[in-house]
Amino acid sequence: MDKLRIRLATTDDLPALLELYRQLARFPPGSLPTDMTTAGPVLARILGDPARRLTVAETGGQVVGTADLMIVPNLTHDGRPWAIVENVVVDHGSRRLGVGQELMTDVVRAARSAGCYKIQLLSRNDRSEAHLFYKTVGFDPSAAGFRMYLD
Predict the structure, then answer these.
(1) Which CATH number is 4-136 given?
(2) Is the pLDDT of residue 131 over 80?
(3) Which residues contact 97 (CB under 8 A, 6 or more apart)?
(4) Cα(59)–Cα(143) distance, rounded to whole angstroms?
(5) What order of strands is seen across the sheet that includes strand 82-90?
(6) Least confident piece of the model among 21-25, 65-69, 73-77, 95-99
(7) What is the reported pLDDT for 151?
(8) Mapped to the 3 state alphabet, what secondary structure does the chain carry?
(9) Do the beta carbons of residue 69 and residue 83 sit within 8 Å?
(10) What is the pTM for the complete model shown?
(11) Tally of CA atoms within 13 A in the half-sphere of 98 that contains its CB
(12) Average of per-residue pLDDT across 46-67
């Protein structure tokens, strides 16, 4: 693998991001990424949000991974924010090559830089390999997660 670079996503990354999200989506069918026409304005909103940090991992001119970090203002913990990581994906052909490690190292660095007191993420119960990876990079399975799909 050529040198790996973690950088902020740009609008030019939209096709690659949608392909990565297709690899992440399994069910329900509504979890599939939206079409290019709808996705363009959504990506513009994400990139313009100062509380979001959408990154991509790039090697050899190809986007091979992504992670989305959100910083959340907070009234507890002496007003320190917390962070949530969402949509962490490494392309099938680039797994086990250190891409995920670099993405998560960048996420942790950014959350620390923002003064966050914690980072959390959710991962579906059936993703045992992902759970092992998250433990390897320093995350503890310390809480039960709950969600409610609204459609």
Answers:
(1) 3.40.630.30
(2) yes
(3) 1
(4) 35
(5) 4-8, 52-59, 62-72, 82-90, 119-121
(6) 21-25
(7) 67
(8) CCCEEEEECCHHHHHHHHHHHHHHCCCCHHHCCCCHHHHHHHHHHHHHCCCEEEEEEEECCEEEEEEEEEEECCCCHHHCCEEEEEEEEECHHHCCCCHHHHHHHHHHHHHHHCCCCCEEECCCCCCHHHHHHHHHCCCCCCCCCCCCCCC
(9) yes
(10) 0.91
(11) 8
(12) 97
Q: How far apart, in whole angstroms, are the C-alpha atoms of residue 86 and residue 122?
A: 8
| pLDDT for the residue 44 | 97
The two three-digit tokens of residue 124, written as one number:
């579906």
pLDDT band at 30 (very low <50, low <70, confident <90, very high): low
Per-domain residue ranges of the chain:
4-136
Bond before 33 cis per omega within 30 degrees: no
145 within 8 A of 122, measured Cβ to Cβ: yes
Q: Residue 56 class from Cβ within 10 Å (0-12 exposed, 13-18 middle, 19+ buried)? A: buried
Sole residue written with tokens 């902020």? 8
For residue 140 the two structure tokens come to 């503890």
* φ/ψ bin of 117: left (φ > 0), alpha (ψ from -120 to 50), beta (otherwise): alpha
Please give the structure tokens belonging to residue 131.
């759970």
Q: How far apart are CA 85 and CA 69, in angstroms?
A: 5
